[in-house]
């Protein structure tokens, strides 16, 4: 039966497109830092370190953004559950955009000494804080407008945002890398993508100015006074399971897009342009398949696809590392593609799955905290651990494959303990009558 409080396809398309655009812009901000960390930030901001130690230090500042994301989900989730989903989208976009532009203005270590990496660390923290609020607001606004039978499909649009943001970030980096000399790129070229973030943020704010508040939020009569307290008291097991379940997705994505970029250019001697092209091609396929996988979840359920993706990831990590070690562009692309297909089988459905797991009054906080804690477990640690393992490995970094396989098996166990949710209605339950 059609729910009168859902909106029709034309309105849903506009809403989903605005959510996708905003998410893409915020993830552009986040990813452009990861690419810069892999390529240039080590020598510029940690010049007294050895090349490997400098890369590890740059990835350390990269990881700070992930640590800040759960804090951002708590902060913005509080207001999302108390004041509405829409204000969160505006505030998070402003914070992330401003801090990203500022990163492009930080002088190098050679100009201001130790203040340079300190400023970098602070701005990366603010980036993560803003992104921690973005995902919950964008996904919930879409999911809570969507009809139950197509919630997976519509909620997948914000999930395409990370792929679009990654392609934008690396497309700009690729263009600069191909047109500038190494000296020009290191001197000023790497800063351009950070400055571009300012114009993108303004465009995102314009797109989001026309969004309306979620009807599900407006139905809630008794808002949680302290959403985080309720989540910790009543949903702590669910938060930990979702964080553990999602850690493999983050580990895969950042192993492919961040660690492998540094490994390929530094250890294998593959050019920046070739590495970026291989990774971007795999991300294009991943992003294109997101709506299709999400549509399958509307028919077959969220949890079965998540279990399938985890199992595929566990089986593919060693082949991916072996293909990467060849340094051959086509083989590296195939390795990355297999990993990202496993990734998308899980993450395409999360826009619908996580909101369905949490009750409405704490949904913004609970879903976002679980999602971003998974980022700490999988995204923050993977480039650092993988770089350290590869440094002490042989020609083929099998230790990285073992680490990623272990994360996949851990996540598989967590997904197995989560319930199926499809299809459920996200409205507030009717009050009991005597």
How would you describe this protein?
There is one protein chain. This protein is globular. With about 425 residues, the protein is mostly helical. α1 packs across α11, α3 runs antiparallel to α5 and α6 packs across α15. It starts with 8 loop residues before the first helix and ends in a 17-residue tail after the last helix. It is built from 18 helices and no strands.
Describe this protein with a few key phrases.
79% helix; disordered N terminus; disordered C terminus
Walk me through the topology.
Blueprint: H1 9-45, H2 51-82, H3 85-103, H4 109-112, H5 115-143, H6 151-179, H7 182-187, H8 192-208, H9 215-219, H10 227-234, H11 236-266, H12 272-300, H13 302-325, H14 329-347, H15 350-357, H16 363-380, H17 382-391, H18 398-417
């Amino acid at each position: 039966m059609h729910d009168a409080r859902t909106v029709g396809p034309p309105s849903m398309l506009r809403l989903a497109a605005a959510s996708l655009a905003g998410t893409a812009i915020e993830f552009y901000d986040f990813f452009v830092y990861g690419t810069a960390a892999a390529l240039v930030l080590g020598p510029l901001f940690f010049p007294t370190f050895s090349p490997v130690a400098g890369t590890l230090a740059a990835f350390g500042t990269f990881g700070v953004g992930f640590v800040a994301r759960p804090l951002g989900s708590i902060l913005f989730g509080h207001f999302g559950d108390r004041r509405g989903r829409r204000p969160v989208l505006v505030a998070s976009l402003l914070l992330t955009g401003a801090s990203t532009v500022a990163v492009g203005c930080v002088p190098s270590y050679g100009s201001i000494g130790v203040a340079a990496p300190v400023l970098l660390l602070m701005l990366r923290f603010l980036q993560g804080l803003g992104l921690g609020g973005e995902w919950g607001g964008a996904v919930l606004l879409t999911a809570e407008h969507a009809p139950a039978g197509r919630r997976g499909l519509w909620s997948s649009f914000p999930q395409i945002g990370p792929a679009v943001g990654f392609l934008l970030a690396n497309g700009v980096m690729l263009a600069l890398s191909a047109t500038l000399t190494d000296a020009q790129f290191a001197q000023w070229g790497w800063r351009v993508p950070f400055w571009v973030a300012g114009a993108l943020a303004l465009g995102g704010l314009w797109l989001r100015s026309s969004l309306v508040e979620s009807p599900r939020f407006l139905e809630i009569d008794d808002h949680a006074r302290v959403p985080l307290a309720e989540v910790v008291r009543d949903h702590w097991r669910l938060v930990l399971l979702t964080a553990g379940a999602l850690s493999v997705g983050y580990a895969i994505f950042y192993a492919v897009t961040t660690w492998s970029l540094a490994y390929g250019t530094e250890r294998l001697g593959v050019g920046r342009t070739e590495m970026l092209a291989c990774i971007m091609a795999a991300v294009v396929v991943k992003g294109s398949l997101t709506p299709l996988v999400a549509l399958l979840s509307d028919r077959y359920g969220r949890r079965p696809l998540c279990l399938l993706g985890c199992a595929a990831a566990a089986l593919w990590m060693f082949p991916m590392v072996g293909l990467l070690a060849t340094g051959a562009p086509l083989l590296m692309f195939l390795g990355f593609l297999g990993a990202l297909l496993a990734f998308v089988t899980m993450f395409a459905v999360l826009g619908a799955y996580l909101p369905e797991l949490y009750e409405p009054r704490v949904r913004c906080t609970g879903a976002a905290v679980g999602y971003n804690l998974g980022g700490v477990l999988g995204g923050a640690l993977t480039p650092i651990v993988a770089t350290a393992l590869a440094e002490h490995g042989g020609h083929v970094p099998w230790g990285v494959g073992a680490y990623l396989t272990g994360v996949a098996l851990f996540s598989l166990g967590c997904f197995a303990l989560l319930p199926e949710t499809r299809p459920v209605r996200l409205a507030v339950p009717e009050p009991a009558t005597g």
